[in-house]
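Known limitations

Structure tokens in this collection are predictions and should be treated as such. Users comparing against experimental data should check residue numbering before alignment. To illustrate the layout, the record for Putative 4-hydroxy-4-methyl-2-oxoglutarate aldolase is reproduced below. The input appears on top and the generated tokens appear beneath it.
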Amino acid sequence: MNNGLRILKRRRAVDLALARRYLEVPVANVSDCMARMTAGGARLRPMHSGGRMAGPALTIKARPGDNLMIHKALQLAKPGDVIVVDAGGDLTNALIGEIMVGDAMNQKLGGFVMNGAIRDAGAIREGSFPVFAAGVTHRGPYKDGPGEINVPISIDGMVIEPGDLIIGDEDGLLCVPFDDAERLLAAAHQKQVIENKMVADIQAGSFDRSWVDATLTRLNCYIEE
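Generated tokens:
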């Protein structure tokens, strides 16, 4: 097997019905339930018009500026899949553009995540198909490889295994590990209940901030009288 130029089978993937239930909760709530320790990097921003993304990861490790394996992944992807590409964050050449996004939409995929650049930004911005990327450039990609499909990848320290759940919204991206997806969905819904009560308390003028002074006391903070 030639590491650096290989296409593997995805052994498992989070259930698509479960993934779509994550569209009901903000990424920030899931992140809080993961102890705020995981993130897909603040550089990767939504390039589409808006809307949440959730689906099983089809992972690619690509040479910076080369999209050969992304084209192959479009042949392999199943409806709902999110194609997640680690191309080192290089912005010299675009990895995808309007045509590949149109292909993904036609196949009813769940979205694109590019640790790299895109082009045709205007057309992508006008659409609702989820595309997250680190930047934009008009320079097109090479198609020579090498690259790997369905291997573990990492984006700014966030490890993504093939079949993990990828979610995204206006706040950014998050990978939910396959084994934790069911539990974290329940925790995120509970977090939403708590936050909804906080909003209601603020509107009613009864929001409790006593924890602030309690924390300052615990930290032995000096407060001038």
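For this record: The mean pLDDT is 96. Residues 41 and 156 are 5 Å apart (CA to CA). Please report discrepancies through the issue tracker.
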